[in-house]
Amino acid sequence: MHLGYQVYGKNYMLNRFGLPQRRERALVIAVREDLTLKTLEDLWGGFRVRLEATHVRRAISSLRPIAAGQPNLNDPLHIAPGFSELKSLKRLQMIPKDGGSWADLRHCPEARDILTPAMLRYISNGKLGSHPDVYGRLSWDKPAVTIKRECAHIGNGRYSHPEQDRLCTVREMSILQGFPENYKFVTSGLANIYRQIGDAVPPLISYQLAHVCEWILSGRKPLISSVILPNTHLKLEDIESEFDEQQTSLELPSRISVPV
Predict the structure, then answer these.
(1) Helix spans in 5-107 (H)
(2) pTM score
(3) All residues at 6 or more sequence positions from 48 whose CB lies less than 8 Å from its CB, including other chains
(4) Where in the chain is the domain with CATH 3.90.120.10?
(5) Cα 191 versus chain centre, distance
(6) Cα 173 to Cα 158: distance, rounded to the nearest angstrom
(7) Domain 74-199, what architecture?
């Protein structure tokens, strides 16, 4: 304040703004005192994202099935690493589809053979805590869990595909992180690309923040239709009015052209 700025900070679950992921982050905006401070809440005032648009199903279910380690000529980034241990693959194959975890296997006759010593200790202590997320599958009809830096291995979190027996591909993970569906990563090695994705500020959200900045500097509120990052999973029809259909028709034309 003594430097002449207005400062606003708040914790948000970013799926509120369309990210198909439960990612909690603190957002801080500071503006000179001669400007009018605006926030993401102001930008979305009167509108909301349809719940199903924040789900894993809406984001990645249209991508073609692939096997772990299988190259994809149509999209080189729609690829997931293979398994170095057959035991890990067998464990994943046994985990229930659509949100299952290794904890679901604790009563399985093969549990002692298929689970790791650490998993068996958690079961013995009866304190699973957040550990079931390790080797877990995403759920189709929920947002993804927080995608973190070390998302390149199924043992690091709930990063396995809801149905297919593999880690989510680079393309799937990047879409869940709010990147455009045709985004190209320039680095060597799959692990480095996964790390870039996990470290990133979701572009779908930073694009909205850029529109907040534009509003602050210009004094003109952007149309809600203009704040959707092109080529991401979020579409115009995923936004609805919090008031009535008349307001929706005023602000959300049925067909628009959004410049890239």
Answers:
(1) 40-43, 56-60, 86-94
(2) 0.88
(3) 239, 240, 242
(4) 74-199
(5) 18
(6) 12
(7) Alpha-Beta Complex (3.90)
